[in-house]
Amino acid sequence: MKKLLMAATAAAVLMAGTPAFAANTDSDTFDINASVAKTCTMENIGDIQLGTVNVNTNAGSTALFINDVASSSTNSFYVSCNDTNSMTISSANAGRLTTSTPLTGADAGFKNTINYSLAADNYRNGGVLQQPGFRRSALFGLVQLNNGASRGALHRQVKFDALVDPLNNLDARPVAGTYTDTVTVTVTAS
Fold it and tell me: Number of structural domains, the chain?
């Protein structure tokens, strides 16, 4: 009996030290989440100086009409958008450079505006016809080009090219003066 009691005690001690038959590993999963807000940013855009716009100084029926192309560009500046975006370009004077020189007392056929064109360079892939901008002509008025057209995320240098074309200014002769316009460029994540 003593042997039986010892065996029962030994078995109890062994059972107490042996864990139950349970799984020896366990796992679970969890997600890590973050978000990035849509944003667009542009560096400062420099002014465009077209210089002196040449007019025909020869006497005759075409005297004083603009007779040479005047063109210039802004500095290159970064445009960065981390989502689909669009660029809109607007002119305070609807694509016209204006002067404060009055037309009072001037003969018919003079104007105090100069039609011009403006286009982004390198905002979109492709040539000038794919870029946002506008063209102002005496014949067609203000024509918007790809203004507000959507494109994918970007980070690149862009510039603007301005052009005074004699063919878009055949409506009248510009009076002498300093001509200006203010252009607003907006890049919007969509």
Answer: 1
